[in-house]
Amino acid sequence: MGGTLAEAQSSIGRSSHVEVDGRKCQGHNRCMALCPEVFEADELGYSVVKQSEIGAELEYKARLAEQNCPEHAITVT
User: Fold this and answer.
1) For 18-75, what is each residue's pLDDT tens digit?
2) CA-to-CA distance for 15 and 22, rounded, in angstroms?
3) What's the total number of domains in the chain?
4) What is the CATH number of the domain that holds 10?
5) What is the pTM of this model?
6) Which residues contact 49 (CB under 8 A, 6 or more apart)?
7) Is 12 exposed, middle or buried (0-12, 13-18, 19+ CB in 10 A)?
8) What's the CA gap between 69 and 65, in Å, rounded?
9) The domain containing residue 62 runs over which residues?
10) How many angstroms separate the most distant Cα atoms in the chain?
11) CA 72, 73, 77 angle in degrees (round to 5)?
12) Calpha distance 13→34 (Å, rounded)
């Protein structure tokens, strides 16, 4: 997984990139519950990224989603 939540909170002014590995995602949808601004479900219920480039205002929530993914399918860089 990526950096810590503390790093995310201190990253003001920079942008991050978010990805979901579709081969790993099992459709638990925790990411959508934690960060609906960035994640949504596809037609089969699996998570996809609807906003891949995010600013510091969403990084904390995206990293929280990354850390809560049971399949480790989310990467925030």
Assistant:
1) 999 999 999 999 999 999 999 999 999 999 999 999 999 999 999 999 999 999 999 9
2) 23
3) 1
4) 3.30.70.20
5) 0.81
6) 18, 19, 20, 38, 39
7) exposed
8) 6
9) 5-76
10) 36
11) 95
12) 22
